[in-house]
Amino acid sequence: MYKRKYIFYLQKIWKAWLQGGFGFASKMVAGHILRNSVSLNERRYMWERRWVRDLRQRSELTVVEIGVYFGDHAEYILKKLDIKQLYLIDPYESYGANQREGDRPRMSSVEQEARARLENHAEVTFIKKYSSDALDSIPDQVDLVYIDGNHAYEYVRDDIANYNHLVKRGGMLVGHDYAWPFPGVIYAVEEFNQETKSKLQLDLHGDWWFLFD
Ligand SMILES: C[S@@+](CC[C@H](N)C(=O)[O-])C[C@H]1O[C@@H](n2cnc3c(N)ncnc32)[C@H](O)[C@@H]1O
Questions:
Q1: Are strands 83-89 and 61-66 parallel, antiparallel or unpaired?
Q2: Exposed e or buried b for every residue in 148-168, given b needs 16+ CB within 10 A?
Q3: Claim: this prediction has a pTM higher than 0.85
Q4: Torsion angles phi and psi, residue 176, rounded to 5
Q5: I want to staple 67 with a disulfide (CB 3.0 to 4.6 A). Which of 39, 140, 149, 195 is the partner?
Q6: What's the CA gap between 183 and 197, in Å, rounded?
Q7: Which atom of ligand 1 is nearest to the CA of 130?
């Protein structure tokens, strides 16, 4: 009896789906997104990152981001976390075939836009350098390093190797694009994971992270 009722309701839900109830709802959401012209990049930040939840409880964070581009992610961090100091490292130079940015605007205008966007944040320091040259400009003990610069294996490997020492106990090493178009990111992250036996965590945004206890 109970089972039959269950099946009856399941059929009803299925029928409603077919008749467009859910279709209508998803069209409304899609329509809303299109109407408000939310760019793909902005949509990346509509859902909260899992690692952000762990850091949200803490105050006066010192954070480093490698690879800033238009500053979308930097802005997201500033919105979500209590930031004392945010170091943004980007050379704003064209950086070869790996970049997949041939059709993007010239890097100087990207830089201008990022700076204009974040100009009201006194806690932001731009470091216009390659990450490999920027270590001298960063303090020793930081709460979060976010790696999203050059995605080729050697660069991600070096960013992890150079910057993981800066993360203090309880802090996080995080990065973006652990995903199929970026095997270099995956190799470098997996290598570090195996070498250090740290616990690697992943999410559906393509973020990868290690919490340093
Ligand atoms: C994927 S974009 C960063 C996107 C940004 N994190 C966001 O989510 O809004 C990559 C950026 O890395 C920068 N970049 C490339 N090679 C770099 C390097 N060796 N050191 C630091 N930044 C680098 C590029 O100039 C580009 O702006």
A1: parallel
A2: bbbbbbebbbbbbebbbebbe
A3: no
A4: -115, 160
A5: 149
A6: 20
A7: 20
Contact 85, 122 (CB under 8 A): no
Q: Give the model confidence (pLDDT) of 178-212 as tens digits.
A: 998 999 999 999 999 999 999 999 998 899 999 99
Class of domain 47-211: alpha beta
Taken in order 149, 175, 89, 74, the sign of the CA dihedral is positive
| Tokens 């012209």, located at residue | 37
Q: 12 C-alpha vs ligand 1 centroid, how far in Å?
A: 50
Cβ atoms < 10 Å from Cβ of 135? 15
Name residues contacting ligand 1 (CB within 6 A): 66-70, 72-73, 89-92, 95, 130-131, 148-150, 155
108 C-beta neighbours (distance < 10 Å), count: 10
CA dist 65 to 14, 16, 174, Å?
46, 46, 9
Domain boundaries, the chain: 2-37, 47-211
